Amino acid sequence: MLIQSAASAGTNPLAGTAAGWMWAIPLLPLLGFLINGLVALTSAAHFGPADPTAASHAAHGDDDGAGHGDAHAAHASTRHRFAAVTSIVGPGVLVAAFLLAAAAFLAMRAVPDLSAPFVQRYFSWMPVGDLSVDVAFRLDQLSMVMVLVVTGVGMLIHIFSVGYMREDPGYPRYFAYLNLFVFFMLVLVLGANYPLLFIGWEGVGLCSYLLIGFWFSEKANADAGKKAFIVNRIGDFGFLIAMFLLFANYGTLDFSALQAQAGAFVFGGPLITAIALFFFLGCTGKSAQIPLYIWLPDAMAGPTPVSALIHAATMVTAGVYLIARSNFIFAAAPVAGLTVIVVGALTAFFAATIGLKQWDIKKVLAYSTVSQLGYMFVGVGAGAYVAGIFHLMTHAFFKALLFLGAGSVIHVMHEAYHHTHRHDDAQDMRNMGGLRKHMKVTWILMWIATLAISGIPPFSGFFSKDEILGTLFSRADGSTLAQAHWLGLPGTVVIYGAYALGLAAALLTAIYMTRLMLYTFHGPNRTGEQERAHLHEAPWVMTGPLVVLGILAAVGGWFNLPEIVTRALPLGPTGLLEHWLDPVVGAGTARVVGSGGEVAAGTEGLLIAVAVAIAVSGIAIAVTVLKPARLVPKAQASPEQGFERVLNNKYYVDEIYDAAVVRPTYDVSRNLLWRGIDTGLIDGLLVNGSAWLARLTGWIGSQFQSGQLGTYAWVLVLGVLLVLGAFHHSVLP
Amino acid sequence: MPDVPSLFYTFHFYLFGLVAMASAVVFVTRRSPVSAAMWLVVVMFSLAALYVMLDAQFIGVIQVLVYAGAIMVVFLFVIMLLNLGHPAELADARGLWWKLAAGAVGLGLVAELFTLVRGATAAPYTLPAGYAAQQVAAEGAIAPVAGPLFHEYLLAFEVTSVVLLAAIVGAVVLGKRRADAR
Amino acid sequence: MNEFLTSIGYMHWVLPMLLLVPTLGAAAIWLHGAPGGPPGDDDVASGTAGAPRLIALVTLAAEFVVSLGLWWAYDPAVAGWQAAFNVPWIPSWGIRFSLGIDGISLMMILLTTSIMVLAVLGGWTSIRRRTHAYYALLLILTAGMLGVFMSLDLFLFYVMWEVMLVPMYFIVGVWGGDRRLYASIKFFLYTMVGSLLMLVAIVYLGLAARSRLTGIPDFSYDAILATARVSHTAAFWLFGAFFLAFAVKVPMFPFHTWLPDAHVEAPTPGSVVLASIMLKLGTFGFIRLAVPLFPAVATNATVRAIVLTLAVIGIVYGALVSLVQPDFKKLVAYSSVSHLGFVMLGIFALTVQSVQGALMVMINHGISTGALFFLIGMIYERRHTRLIEDYGGIARVVPMFAAALTVVTFSSIGVPGTNGFIGEFLVLIGAFRTYPVYALIAATAVIFSAAYLLWAIQRILFNALDKKANFHIPDLNRRELALLIPLLAGIVWLGVYPEPVLRRMEPSAERFVQSVQTRAIAQNQAPAGGIE
Amino acid sequence: MLAESLFFSAVLFSIGVIGVLTRRNAIIVFMCVELMLNAVNLTFVAFARVYGAGGQVFVFLVMTVAAAEAAVGLAIIIALFRHRHTVDLQNINLLKG
Q: What residues of chain A score a pLDDT lower than 50?
């Protein structure tokens, strides 16, 4: 089935190099999925499930509500028969894929001035009339970065999972899903056209659904998975419409072919704006932006490595990738760009406020992810595609680290509870405290990530976040965005507003992250006497990946050092990522920048200083205001009051959606459509009504059949009269 | 027969017609079946007279023989057989409204029939006036009927015999007391 | 392969053979005779089901093998009907036994023959009473459905249309659930109302195409297409007659209410055949008869607006009503209303993409919904309930069933990479060119379909395993796996590599779109005379 | 005399109809029917004078049928009377399905 297209491959300098093997990069995880899936299914068929009564009991062991999803990892102790196969195949395919990706990367680097994308066409997927969609992969600088992030971080998380999930009875199933996810994610980033990207886009959503609901016996988990998928589908609706608009107007869905027509796009026209906005609707679903962010916090019901891989590092950043990939569209639609900026900035701020008052360690990180994704969208919306991708990359490092660190903490908490047979919430920070004594490595690594996300130099997050905010600031003057209007507001005002929101969000980020660290690792230990004895560092198979991620989170900024830094300090090359991505996004960026330019070095320095000051003050505020010593375990805690309570309940957005959208839909469907129209009107009135009418006419007719000759005679005579009368009228003059 | 009927002829024609109608009215208003039957016999006789006056002497004779003679006798025979005429049987007529409605229907029917017959005579097919009388004079009363009956309508005539046979068989079967009727 | 097929003259006898084989099978079952004992006896338990069941399976397997050759023998590059078979039937009325296929009917025939084999397997143990009659009817049903797909004579089409109606009536009415009589009569009456009108229209058309020399009517499809001249008004009413016949069968909103009842009450194979094949006969009728015969009416702006509105209402309405169904079978039945709405949207949007998409949805719905009904039947056989609330958490007990149901569900939702996506995507992308607003509304179904199906499978497969009756359900056995694996393979194959199917249908779909458009213009310009 | 005959015939026929409609005694109803037949016969005879003797043939046939009818009808009435001991039509509704 694999037919390499000689025409496109032959002309590209990458043909024949390791990059020519790029089809194998996604296929390896697919192979892993098949093997692990088969292991999961055959073992189930051969040995049957564990006694369902016992299993059911395990699932219901602790009924203290949501938030202890990871409970089952440690509860069930039946190790899987073929677990060894899975342990090798699961992470193994990822390692191989990463090595292949690295080889491809080296091959790409070896080619000087590589400008054309390397497209491999395998077979025709949907050839219908003038629509032609191929299964084809496109390797360019942007997808190379994404492939490296996906396989690299994915590999680390797979390795971590070997330790984290080893006791779970669904171990092969878990790896099957995870492998499948990586496959779809790679299809997403490698796909050479929108429909193929959409396969990956929905495929990762599917895997996300399966993995969020991995411990499906808990209704909350299954609910969360379903919610994620459905909310994502709302976004996918937008994605589909955008594709339809593209095809209806430009006749193709291929990236290269569309990009070639980019010059024909009417700049700022309604069509291109609509396309961009519909794509962005897709992004709000997949990347959890307002108004569709609600699924992501619930998605924490999945195993923690899943949260790290899918709901922090890779899948949720697909929207950012999509906009960067469609830069030629968004660059032509400044109103859409401003919309992206506004939504991104609002999300960044809004999610950060919720993050302030969450107690579940994973929920804090979830809202932090939503917030950070907002930053990325601010970046790509402002045409700073490089900055957006850069933040995507660094965020993948530090957020994966944070999640995996939290995973280690939860894992350890859980084991402790398991040993003492206590059923308590292993994810609530009020039950933790002072863990730094027991988990030194994790503690240090988590602090690195915290400083990175807060934007403290020289950690990676500082560089990427600063680049986003700095570029945004510079767009306020002279860029096409600044000249456009958004809902009547001048673009400049919108940009400054978004900048202010971004700074505010940065302050909040520093506060809630420090809060998380303080409550988890500092202050007195609140786990309880017995449990404390069982607290210890997680095994090396789990901390190993953490260390790698820690290093990346610390030095990730090196990939795209700003000029102002390299001029002062000889740290490394300037704007490595920017140069690398230039062939893909350079034109788009240039179009957005328009007549504007970079801000002056002095202003830039000032901006950096302000940003750092804000980050530092955020940490300082958190350290001074928050008193971990006063915290009591969850069981004894009193509920929050006032605005804290609103924050703790996430502004009641879920409840509002439920009352405004979900319930009315069900009610209308059930009472109006089904019982009203279907059973009542159509079946009741029309179908059974016509049957009733037939019976009525029959009944009336039957009443004449009295058997009384007299009646018959009357009817007959009246009939004769009528017929004669009619004859009389029609025939006789 | 002359073209313009004589006064004698006309007088008797109207007389028998009026007698027929009057007897018919009396017939339907009699309560007793026997007297009703007797009045019907009067109608039949009047009609027989009309037939004769209309140059259908043979039919007139048959009318007297078959209808007034045979059929009405059978009726009377059945009435006697069933011994009808008890007061309960005589409480036969229906209510006033019923009668009025029936009368209205009857009048309507007369009106409609009347307007219909006024519009109906297809001139091209009419025979010359007095042709029937001449035919009778030439061939006798029976030949003009027998000719068509045994030529054009032979099949119908033969089928009639089947009808009669069936009627006889049916009457016998129906009239027979069944063994289980008791 | 092609050489072999040519050497045995395959294309000359394949179509009559496809009708003959099931008829002979039915005759064989009849000759074999009914088992002694009262008709209500459990034939499976007493072992008397074996012979009819085996005959049916062997017959339908042979049928499938015979039909499979068409996959290679059919040449998409050749215009016109292929494998044509044409003999006089009732010469004095100009009725011929005329068969032939194009790319569209090719796929429908292959779908039918393959699903029928599985349908026998699906009812292997669940059909227990009067098995000989059941299998004989199933075989006649097969012949009837295939006959509809391959008829090139309108009268023959009508005959086949009724031939398939009767066995289905009995299958629902005799082997169905508790309310089977209500359901079967509703099904029968609904369908009859439409089909009788269609007969009137067919006779009218046959007379309109009668020979000028001999005055003998001509019912052949090509002749009617070429020579039948009817006035605009007559065309409008004739289209209406066909429309009603097919819209009931599709079923389009608001003619759909027989479907949930028939589906719920029908035995598993009955539901499968109903959903997978019989509903397609309605849309096939639109593609083959209603639209090409009256292009001017079908492309009339008002008519199109009405049909498309009904289609889109059906899409959204079916999805929303599915959302609140307590009975899984009913849920799937309403989801069929939604899916078939896509087909109608695709046909009447009249672009190559949308028509191809409609055809793909027909095939995909046959596979996915068929598989869903099989799965419901399997779990029903074990638990004797179709109510969603009676399950919960059974993925723990029956992992293979859960895996299969999940895959099929995602196919039905239309996740890319499964077959469901291809059809819906093509329909929408094609319809968006001509009717963007309708396509936009229809596209919301991607949200609703996910909502109702995921909610349903969550309540069946996931959540807590808290009902004792569900603790010891056995997982799929070998027969059931053998039945499901081809369907699952089809789901993935058509999702990833639909090109061979698309390629075979493309010329036919293109011809359909082009001829309808050009003939509509021609008819609108030159007013046709009425029937003389 | 044609018009007069037809007039007589119409009146007699209508009287017969009124009788059928108003009477409940089966035998009298039956006799009314006979009256209606006779009225029609008069029409036939009257027309036979104008159009030819074919009309008389029909009268002949009608009489035959009337005779047959009388035989069968009276037999039925006798059978009914034996069964129900009445000839009142209101009490007889055997035709009711």
A: 1-9, 46-77
CA distance C367 to A32: 27
Q: Which residues, 6+ apart, have CB-to-CB distance to C464 below 8 Å?
A: A56, A59, A60, A217, A218, A219, C392, C393
Residue A670 lies in a domain: yes
A708/D89 Cβ within 8 A? yes
- C440/chain A closest Cα distance in angstroms: 7
State how far residue D95 is from chain A, nearest Cα, in angstroms.
Answer: 4
A138 burial (CB, 10 Å; 0-12 / 13-18 / 19+) is: buried
pLDDT at site A592: 87
Question: Of A610, A640, A670, which residue sits at a domain end?
Answer: A640
Element (H, E) at A132: strand A131-139
Asked if the model's pLDDT at residue C43 lies above 80, the reply is no
Of B33, B160, B181, the CB nearest to D28: B33
Nearest to B112 among A718, A725, A733 (CB): A725
Q: How many residues does chain A have?
A: 733
Of D17, D90, D97, the CB nearest to A710: D90
Closest CA to A300 of A202, A398, A195, A406: A406
Q: What is the chain C residue with the closest CA to A197?
A: C416
Q: Which of A401, A404, A409, A405 is nearest to A535 (CA)?
A: A409
The answer as to whether A538 is a domain residue is yes
Residue A136's beta-bridge partner residues? A121
Q: Which residues of B make CB contacts under 8 Å with A? A: 105, 108-109, 112-113, 115-116, 119
Chain A residues closer than 8 Å to D20 by CB: 713, 717
Contact of D87 with chain A, judged by CB distance below 8 Å, is answered with no
Has residue B53 been placed in a domain? yes
The neighbouring-strand residues paired with C416 are C418
**Contact at CB, D94 and A705, closer than 8 angstroms:** no
Contacts of A714 in chain D (CB under 8 A): 21
Confidence of residue B124 (pLDDT cuts 50, 70, 90): low
* Cβ-nearest to B175 among D35, D48, D78: D78
Q: Are residues A458 and A601 in the same domain?
A: yes
Question: Can you spell out the DSSP letters for A621-654?
Answer: HHHHH--GGG---GGGPPPP-HHHHHHHTGGGHH
Mean pLDDT of all residues belonging to chain C: 88
Pairing of strands C82-90, A489-490: unpaired
Q: What does R_g of chain A's alpha carbons equal in angstroms?
A: 31
On whether residue B152 sits in a domain, the answer given is no
Residue C459: CA count within 13 A, CB half-sphere = 16
Does the predicted interface ipTM exceed a cut of 0.85?
no
User: Could you read off the pLDDT of A532-581 as tens digits, one per residue?
Assistant: 888 888 888 888 999 999 999 998 888 888 888 888 887 778 888 888 88
- Nearest CB to D18; choose among B62, B66, B106: B106
Instruction: Spell out the domains of chain D, with CATH numbers in brackets.
Output: 2-91 (1.10.287.3510)
**CATH number for the domain harbouring residue B124:** 1.20.120.1200
d(CA C386, CA C395): 16
Q: Are A481 and A475 in contact (CB under 8 A)?
A: yes
In eight-state DSSP terms, residue A332 is T
Q: Do the two chains D and C touch, given a threshold of 8 Å on CB pairs and at least 3 pairs?
A: no
Which residues on chain B are in Cβ contact (under 8 Å) with D49?
A: 54-56, 132
Overall domain count for chain A: 2
- Calculate helix-pair angle for C436-443, C301-323, nearest 10 degrees: 10
User: Best interface-test mutation with D: which of B12, B30, B40, B54 has the largest number of D CBs within 10 A?
Assistant: B54
Residue C331: band (very low, low, confident or very high) from pLDDT cuts 50, 70, 90: very high
| Same-domain check for residues A707 and A601 | no
Q: Give me the number of domains chain C comprises.
A: 1
